[in-house]
Amino acid sequence: MAAKPGKVKLIEQFMADGLDVMFGNPGTVEQGFLDVADRAAGFRYVLALQETVAAGIADGYARATGRPALLQLHAGVGLGNGIGMLYQSMRGHTPLVAIAGDAGVRYDAMDSQMAADLVVMARPVTKYATRVTDPRSLLRTVRRAVKIAMTPPRGPVFVALPMDVLDELNDEPVLATSVPVTACAPSAETVARAARLLAGARKPLILVGDGVSVAGAQAELVRVAELLGADVWSVDSSEVNMPASHPLARGQLGHMFGERSSAVVADADAVLIVGTYVFPEVFPALGTPFRSDARIVHIDLDAYEIAKNHPVDLGVVADPKPALAALAAELGLRLTPAERRGGAPTPARTEEAEDTTLECFVRELARQTGGDLIVFDEALTSSPAVVRHLPPDRPGDYFLTRGGSLGVGIPGAIGAKLAHPDRTVVGFTGDGGAMYTYQALWTAARHSVAAKFVVCNNGKYRLLDDNIAQYWRERDIPGHAFPSSFDLSHPEIRFAELARALGADGIRVDKPEQAAEAVRRMLAATGPFLVDLRV
Ligand SMILES: Cc1ncc(C[n+]2csc(CCOP(=O)(O)OP(=O)(O)O)c2C)c(N)n1
Ligand SMILES: [Mg+2]
């Protein structure tokens, strides 16, 4: 392989892995390879004005393509800005390949301006963090990082790239990264054990998370649920794992209070957990919430998550798709016709909600698109209305914010639109969430990304109001005014004007009667378009 400067080979290596778009924010210590990237045929750089935005767009792009996304950060300061968003990528298992430059190995002893231990900074929010110090192992290291990002459990990785290493001549071969196949099925004996534990249960329950969607195992999951007649609850679920409209789908357990999960699982005599961990709340129950005689089977590709907090009767390291397919086949043989439940009757849906501006807007959106759109949901307290009218049924059409870091909605929708330029993509966020990453609208305008954005504007951090109300109830503290730090009403944030100032179009919607026309305008817009929806 011909020797070329490492910075040239680096871009060739990215291209060999199909990594042809990089999201980032530049700095001097990255100038060498950014200069090369700018002139590399077929390579695209998407400029963000703040690293949280770059990381959020990369996260949405990786989620919507199912492939790794490239994120370039500037030294320690840029990495520092990106860390909150990298944290949510790590919790959500997004395969991001983050890189940052540094001045050079030759300056290590100088402790000069901008010196930072990048690897130590990145380690807690990545699966793998390293620094290349020898020019002969540049591409080898990058390939290892890509492989680790893509191997379940997927997640972000970080490689620090010193300038002098990238300027040296490099004669490593450029090769596509070998990503191992992990679609491993359990043995017939293990499947039979799982079926024995689950069959014949009077109150079977299934808990599922994003491991199902990564494996593409939705159909197999539905089959097992129908055979057992089990309720299916989503746990730490941010994509379509169980179609929301299926009669056995019961919704999300939620991310805040363990009591909710404990109440849901309390009666179950057999529990199947697939592709998630239990339990995902900020305040999880510390005791075991399961019945002492409940039989518990946990299937996951990540052995760490199995029995992490509560013991199980059978833990199975396997890919959910072949594992659930085998389990369905075994249950089909084993269950007597009387035991096959064939799915519970459709529960009566508790609707119709009031005709608020939010309800009317989302209902109109569902009507005018026929549900054919991709939703990126960071609507928080407005999310129930969004999913009521746009139920997450089709894999790849719904992405929920994850990991608890605000500011994902607008960048996430931009990433999804870049991944699927021909689809309608709508990102929902709150007035709080929007302001963490509002600069992303400039990136959408600059790169002609025609995603749509809806700010569900209630003038407050409403979720914080709801949570402190619960805290007061639990501790018998009499209700009183919410902390003023949860209020965003003054000065008023004029989102549509702010969008226009950043190069995107924007309108404000105050009343239900304006919803239909607003949706029409939004869908007709040929560029990025934002609706300030007063909810
Ligand atoms: C980066 C970050 N900072 C702070 C928080 C704490 N937080 C959680 S929910 C929330 C309020 C969100 O408000 P908004 O987006 O307007 O949605 P609403 O609750 O009003 O529906 C805040 C500030 C967070 N999750 N992430
Ligand atoms: Mg709000």
Automatic annotation (TrEMBL):
Keyword match Cell membrane: no
Top-rank taxon, per record: Bacteria
Record-annotated Thiamine pyrophosphate enzyme central domain positions: 191-327
PROSITE patterns, sorted: TPP_ENZYMES
SUPFAM superfamilies on file: DHS-like NAD/FAD-binding domain, Thiamin diphosphate-binding fold (THDP-binding)
Cited Gene3D superfamilies: 3.40.50.970, TPP-binding domain
InterPro entries: DHS-like_NAD/FAD-binding_dom, THDP-binding, Thiamin_PyroP_enz_cen_dom, Thiamin_PyroP_enz_TPP-bd_dom, TPP-bd_CS, TPP_enz, TPP_enzyme_TPP-bd
Domain Thiamine pyrophosphate enzyme TPP-binding: 386-532
Keywords: Thiamine pyrophosphate
Record-annotated Thiamine pyrophosphate enzyme N-terminal TPP-binding domain positions: 13-109
Name this polypeptide is given: Thiamine pyrophosphate-binding protein
Source organism: Kitasatospora cinereorecta
